[in-house]
Write a structure and sequence with these properties.
seven-stranded parallel beta sheet; alpha/beta; globular; binds nicotinamide-adenine-dinucleotide
Length: 263
């Protein structure tokens, strides 16, 4: 038996670093997975990858979805009605825009876009997952929302809209966890440290100074890998974490616990 045998799961941002690794693990552990992403071509490539890595996966499907659009999110969740409703949703889609800066220089439209995807997208995903779980009479469910370590520690290299959005995800997830605990629906926030995924690596590019400015804060001396986040998501999605609720689940190689890093 897989750790998610028979569970119906949605992964948003499934074509990206963390989302794809998570989909692969979910499929390996026996889940039925709906991969959703705003980018159709990326989603098609990601699906091909999952089929290559997990050839025995029975049900892995895709749906193009903009998480900032509620009717898109409703349609994504209702796609699982014929499967028996949602058991797990990983609200993971997010952006860190290149023009995001500090209080002075962040353009208002970048602020609004970031909140629309990173915060409203998580709200819509949580809302429609709860509606689906109730509709299908679920006695338990797991909702995992991707925040970030910047929801916990301040960064002198600013991306103010992004930081504010991830703080909102953390607070929202905590309240949702309290509100729905007696229904058996668990909500946890994942807090990844900077990773080797396109989201960060494309932004850092070849700028070694910019890279070092971040790398030096890791006691491990390295960025994290998407698979290391996916392993934590698998735990939070599975019944192994049945008494884990409302947490800020930090997967950061010790970064937020560190004062001075080892040489
Ligand atoms: P990624 O850029 O590799 O993947 C993000 C995916 O989200 C992409 O496939 C993109 O197409 C999709 N997406 C963007 N806008 C969307 C929208 N409106 N609707 C649906 N999908 C949309 O990034 P990743 O590193 O895998 O990040 C996943 C999550 O982890 C994000 O929420 C990010 O903020 C968070 N995170 C990442 C890091 C990091 O260093 N990579 C650190 C902390 C938190």
């Amino acid at each position: 038996m897989g750790r998610l045998e028979g569970k119906n799961c949605i992964v948003t941002g499934a074509a990206g670093g963390i989302g794809l690794e998570t989909t692969v693990l979910f499929a390996r552990e026996g889940a039925n997975v709906l991969m959703s992403d705003i980018s159709g071509p990326s989603l098609a490539r990601a699906l091909a990858k999952v089929k290559e890595l997990v050839p025995r996966a029975e049900k892995v499907e895709t749906k193009i979805t903009d998480v900032s659009n509620e009717s898109n999110v409703k349609a994504m969740v209702e796609h699982l009605d014929s499967w028996g409703g949602v058991d797990v949703i990983f609200n993971n889609a997010g952006i860190m825009h290149g023009d995001d800066a500090d209080a002075i220089d962040t353009p208002e439209q970048i602020w609004d876009l970031t909140q629309a995807i990173n915060v409203k997208g998580v709200w819509f995903g949580s809302k429609h997952a709860v509606i689906s779980m109730r509709k299908h009479g679920k006695k338990k469910g797991s909702i995992i929302n991707t925040a970030s370590v910047v929801a916990l520690v301040g960064s002198a290299t600013p991306q103010l809209a992004y930081t504010a959005s991830k703080g909102a995800v953390l607070a929202m997830t905590r309240e949702l966890a309290m509100r729905h605990a007696r229904e058996g629906f668990r909500f946890n926030a994942l807090c990844p440290a900077p990773l080797n995924t396109p989201l960060l690596q494309d932004w850092l590019g070849d700028d070694q100074a910019k890279r070092h400015r971040r790398e030096v804060h890791f006691p491990t001396g390295r960025f994290g890998e998407a698979i290391e986040q996916a392993q934590a998501v698998l735990f939070l999605a599975s019944d192994e974490s049945s008494f884990v609720n409302g947490t800020d689940f930090v997967v950061d190689g010790g970064m937020t616990r560190c004062y001075v890093t080892p040489e």
